[in-house]
Design goal:
By secondary structure, the chain is of the alpha+beta class. The protein has 2 domains: 4-51, no CATH class; 68-151, Winged helix-like DNA-binding domain superfamily/Winged helix DNA-binding domain (Arc Repressor Mutant, subunit A, Orthogonal Bundle). The protein has helices at 38-51, 68-78, 88-95, 99-107, 135-144; strands at residues 4-8, 15-19, 24-28, 86-87, 120-121. The radius of gyration is 15 Å and the shape is globular. Keywords: Cytoplasm, DNA damage, DNA repair, Methyltransferase, Transferase. The active site is at residue 117.
Length: 152
């Protein structure tokens, strides 16, 4: 299947949305091409609205090329409302799996920000973040969403 890219400027540095003919398949922390497909243009516009504080969720088509378990965890992360957080333990209890498995699935999230793995925290701290900038990026995203009260 074809792979298309759309570079996006963001407050977090250059991002690249990746898509196939069906939907967004990845968000990568790098500069990319400008293939300009409709789904990529829609996703880039929604990201710009998110960073401008005008969007709280994403409606662009997503296509996850991963295990069924990863899809289940991504769905659970996507259900966390804007500005709210859950712990790895919360999602583990919800899905009936160990918290470590949730942490690994969060780290393997192929579409960060659109699938908000930054909203998942450790029981006694922030936990990790696989995007460029690591935990500092996670803190920025949580502050952007107004969830920073828990960080102070």
């Amino acid at each position: 299947m074809s792979r298309f890219e759309q570079a996006v400027d963001s407050p977090l540095g250059p991002l690249t949305l990746v898509a196939d003919a069906v939907g967004i398949t990845a968000l990568e922390w790098r500069d990319g091409r400008q293939d300009g497909t409709p789904v990529l243009e829609q996703a880039a516009a929604q990201l710009a609205e998110y960073f401008a504080g005008k969007r709280q969720d994403f409606t662009v088509p997503i296509r996850l090329n991963c295990s069924e378990f990863q899809r289940t965890v991504c769905a659970a992360m996507s259900a966390i409302p804007f500005g709210e957080t859950r712990t790895y333990g919360d999602l583990a209890a919800q899905l009936g799996v160990p918290a470590q498995a949730i942490g690994q699935a969060c780290g393997g999230n192929p579409i960060p920000i659109l699938i908000p793995c930054h909203r998942v925290l450790g029981a006694n701290g922030l936990g990790g973040y696989s995007g460029d900038g690591g935990v500092e990026t996670k803190v920025w995203l949580l502050r952007h969403e107004g969830a920073a009260g828990l960080l102070i």
